[in-house]
Amino acid sequence: MTTASRRRFFFKTSLFVLLLVLCLYLFLHSSFFQVNKIYVTGIDKVQSSDIIHMSGIVKGVNIFLLDETEAARAVRLHHLVREASIVRHLPRTIEIKVAERTVWGLVPFKGSLICVDREGICIDKDSELSMVSYPIVTFNRLPTYINLGQAVYPRGITRMTAIWDSISAEQRKEISEFHYNDKTDELTLYTTFGTEIRWGDNSRLAEKVNFLEQTFKLERDMYSKGKDTLEYVDLRFKGQPVIKTGVAY
To answer: Where are the alpha helices (DSSP H) in the chain?
Structure first.
């Protein structure tokens, strides 16, 4: 092939590729890929229309021109949304996947209950949820106001959920209250028998959980025999826990 032939071949090939790219561009930006359906999955309490509105996605937009990162970020601003993602279903459908926040604990606050999730986010107020179904969470101090979507001592809540996840359903029934002191950065647990368990932080978690079960057994034994009651069990330090008993009445 001569030099002139190679040049003509290169020119024709380049022209063909350019036309192909142009056709592809025009096709991808044509009405064929205009969104005509938007739906939301994973919701129970949140309204689908609210999620779609918050996403900023509207029908008629080109499916490839969506900023899915920004849309998902906007949806996550809803106080009941824990996670959100945008999924394109070619050629014209958008799915908004949502994971809702769910109630983990109840915080007594000004005569009502604040519902918080596992991250300490306030997701409801004045709830009629049963106090038996969720752990009661208290703090040495609370803000003057708590708004929906506001985090309530997430550091303390995270420690509580770690303990909650490490014990059985039966053991959970033995705990009446979690208390977090943000000044000392320590947890205190209270049992249904009224014993104060000075937990501290979550170091030696497995060891403390084992002592926790022993405490429950000791409480039941002392109660059944009508002997002295437990006042507190201190698990903050290594070794055997410090136990103080009181006189049963």
So the answer is: 3-28, 48-55, 68-75, 154-166, 169-172, 205-225
Q: Are strands 196-200 and 229-234 parallel, antiparallel or unpaired?
A: parallel
Q: Which residues of the chain have pLDDT under 70?
A: 1-17, 19-30, 127-132, 227, 247-249
For residue 241, give the 3-state DSSP assignment. coil
Report whether 109 contacts 142 (CB < 8 A): yes
For residue 121, how far is the Cα from the chain centroid? 8
DSSP secondary structure letters along 221-240 = HHHHHT-PEEEEEE-SSSSS
Structure tokens at 58: 């509207």
- The CATH code that applies to domain 105-246 is 3.40.50.11690
pLDDT for 100 equals 97
34-100 CATH pick, 3.40.50.850, 3.10.350.10, 3.20.20.10, 3.10.20.310:
3.10.20.310
- List C-alpha distances in Å: 169 to 130, 135, 165, 172, 235: 16, 12, 9, 5, 22
What count of other Cβ atoms lies within 10 Å of the Cβ of residue 195? 24
Interstrand relation of 112-116 and 175-181 (parallel, antiparallel or unpaired): unpaired
Instruction: Give residue 171's identity as a one-letter amino acid code.
Output: Q
Sign of the Cα pseudo-torsion (104, 105, 109, 111, in order) = positive
CA-nearest of 69, 64, 67 to 84 is 69
State the pairing for strand pair 175-181/137-139: parallel
Please answer whether residues 39 and 98 qualify as being in contact, where contact means their C-beta atoms are separated by less than 8 angstroms: no
| DSSP at 218 | H
- What is the pLDDT, as a whole number, of residue 111? 87
